[in-house]
Protein: Maleylpyruvate isomerase
Organism: Rhizobium viscosum
Amino acid sequence: MTIQLYGFWRSNAAFRVRVALALKKLPFEEIEIDILSGHQFDAAYAEVNAERVVPTLVHDGHRVFQSLAIMEYLDDIHPEPRLMPVDAREKAYARSLALVAVADAHPLIVPRVRKHLGQALGADASAIEAWCRHWTTEGLATYERLLMRRPPAPFALGETPGIADICIAGQIVLAEFNKIDLSAFPAVAALGTRCFDLPEFAQAHPSQQAGYSNAH
Ligand SMILES: N[C@@H](CCC(=O)N[C@@H](CS)C(=O)NCC(=O)O)C(=O)O
């Protein structure tokens, strides 16, 4: 089996997929698409991913995009360790937790949204920064309320890390980039510590990727 991942060090969605691949111990080659320089719009990559975003996973020549779909695909082709529970209610809860970041919090702060705020609405750099901090904080607050209702034991769905933990860890990475103090979100912070103590999470962190810069 050969796996390639079109990603980028700064991409939160690519981070999710890197963790999933690492938890499943699946080797892969990462191909960098610099989304901060606009290379997602290059003709060659636009052909790979019609949405013009990263990540895209290529498995034996078959392309899959959208990080949640990719993680579920990996669970289907390589079931152990499972990232998604089998039980219907647990699976729905895991997917719900994942979607708080994937569908609700993260899409509001991606490069194309930040760019549009500046170009269409005249927002300056500090207004865009405040926007990103606001929506990232909202995501963290939602996760905190959810984890208070059902405390991790020790991970969000139980004994082993899965898609929910991956997405919550990604939200913590966004908090770091947006300089948000996690002390107001102790349950999220504790789960994050548990995740990033694992090499699979730690090595997928943007700071461990080629090209990392803390200037962004
Ligand atoms: N919901 C998608 C998010 C895809 C996405 O927006 N990726 C960002 C990087 S994390 C991107 O490529 N942005 C390019 C842009 O906004 O122009 C997923 O989870 O895969």
